[in-house]
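FAQ: What does the model actually see?

It sees only this:
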Amino acid sequence: MLGLLALLVFSAGLRLFPIQHGLPDNHVPDTHVVRAALGMAQDRDPIPPVGRWSTYPNLLPYVLIPCYVGQFALGQVRGEWDEPGAYAKAIKASPERAHLLARVVLALISALAPLFVVLGLRAAGYGRGAWCAGLLSASSLLLVQLATHERPWAPLATFIALSMWPAAIHARTGATRPLLLSGLAAALAFSTHQAGAFAVLIPALAWASAPRGWQGAERRERLRIGFLCAGLFVVLALTVGHPYLIRYGMTPTEAVAAGEQLAGSQHVSIGGQSVVFQLSAQTFQKLGKALVGYDPLLLLLALLGFAAGLKQRETRPAVGFALLWGLFFMTNQNDHVRYLVPLAAALAWPAGIACERLLTGTLTRNLLLLTLCLPVVQALRLGIILRRPDTRAIASAQLLEQPGNEPIAVGVGGPPLALSRTALRRLMELRELRTRELHRLGTLEGGNEPINGYGLDALPLEDVFEFDLRHRASWPRKRIVDRLGEQAKDPLAVLRSFGCDTILLADRTPMDDHPATLLDTRAASQEPGPDLSLHAQGVRPRLKPLVLPPRPLASWSPGEGVKDARLPLELGFPLTELWKIERPGPLLELYRVPR
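And it is asked to produce this:
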């Protein structure tokens, strides 16, 4: 018991150490969970239609709503607000209040995963190897990094790890209760994110591996508990994750994220997310490299323990799930590193099996204990970096200290500057203001100073141009075309039309010989895939490259020689990059716009 408590404290400590990274700004462009929880509470509607607030399932918003109720009650006691409307205004003025609370709650959920790994392997008959697996899970760089985000991926890994524990017991004994518990935990995974539907493989593999026979009464009993497990899975998933299916029915394609890109593809949609069935060798190359870069020791040990894990009845559900998940998501066209998170949690099982054997020899034991320090050092290094000021925060502070007379154009990936009244009024001409922007404008027009000051006259270029960064494609938005006609294809003409005299550009891959998007002279990639929405089908467009002076007026760097400047988001190969990066954020460069 003390060992599990120590592991929990260690796991939570690594995750909470950098939990305030980036705040009060939020540099993780995924606010579904927080937005859904606050939106449900605001509307007093626990089952909104898909896309109203989020395209994810509802479980994590349901977890956060009582936390926000508690935050509201505590604020009342402290005299910070006296009614829900005042609390809502406080959150709009300081959204970091909501985001930090969500990060802490989800990080604590993710900190439980190593405990479930230990308990599962102990149930499968392992001793010291189980504790090594728990340590690997607690210090996994990928699991630690994603646990610092208010996103569903680390909690998803926790519920998958939870499902594996009773699955091992059922595979050993054939008892009914563990299988049902495994199915319920898998339903929680599915209720966290649509990708969690694959967690049903865990109780399914346990059911198939159980010692009960396949003939006569034993077959009937096997089928009975199998259908019972499946029924509980469906009921719980529909209740806490996907109740919108009961209330509204199947989600129309237009409400699915990137639904316009699904036409003609082989895909399955659940709620607001979809999976496209398309093989890609490039995905295996990219994600394989990322997995080696994030958790090399975990991967190596897992490969050593895979064969033994598949042979043993108790470990087959977890190891089989890891194999099937990896085969699908590492060869699918969707190549996001976050899809490796559940795999990292599952790989702790075969890694623990390998550790059990390596601990029997003196030399291998000493070598193993030494190498187990590597992921801990990596996780601590990540925490130290994330606690440092982001390049975007430093640039914002300096620009606010020396504001110019003309608006600053801010490129893709640039800092989320606090906008002035003039900038917000200009933005209203390009699109509808979002809730927090409307609140800020109301505060400024009421003659009051917002918490983060009067702001800067800046023009976010993502509201002026459409960008497809993957394919280097770009195009002016419709309102810009209506306003400038053919000149809208020339970024310089567009910047001049808004009176911008400087432009702040962000580069997340500063050493790859390719400049920031607006400066890139390469043609857009025409490889198969979705087109942007505002041009002729079949051809990806490209804006005329912007020509700027050879040297910037100012720059803010994440570190010398950094090739991958995506932190706090996922890196491509952190095994080496983590030691070059000095602070999170992209390379930022401020240029004078030619007249």
